[in-house]
C-alpha cells in the first residue's frame, strides 16, 4: 500500500497513535525504504536522498491533499541538540521540520548543513572589506 492512499484506509488520526512501519518506494530516488534502522516508529523520509511526501497537515493526520514531494532544503539543531531536516513541498511550498533518522545519509545531512557556508548571500570580497574596516589586514587567505 502506498503512502498517498493510507488516509483512505484508516480512520482520521490513525498515524498519530500507531507506528508507520510499512515499506515504501521513494518517489525521488526510487529506493525501497524500510522502517528498520530509523531509530523511530515513524519513518517519514527516505534515508538515502532525505526526500519526503506531503501527506500530513499535522503530524500523522494524512489530511494533506497536496501529495507533493517534500525536498530537503536545510537542517537545524533543536534545543536538545537533535538535528532536524527542513522540508519544502515542491507543489505548494509548505515547510515542515522532521527529526533525522538513525540511518540517514550522513553526506546528505552534511551537504545540507554546509549549503549556507558554500553559497553565502553576499560576495566573498565583502569579507575582506569588512575585515579591513575592523582593523585586520583584509586577507581571508
UniProtKB/TrEMBL annotation:
<protein>
    <submittedName>
        <fullName>RNHCP domain-containing protein</fullName>
    </submittedName>
</protein>
<feature type="domain" description="RNHCP">
    <location>
        <begin position="21"/>
        <end position="110"/>
    </location>
</feature>
<dbReference type="Pfam" id="PF12647">
    <property type="entry name" value="RNHCP"/>
</dbReference>
<dbReference type="InterPro" id="IPR024439">
    <property type="entry name" value="RNHCP"/>
</dbReference>
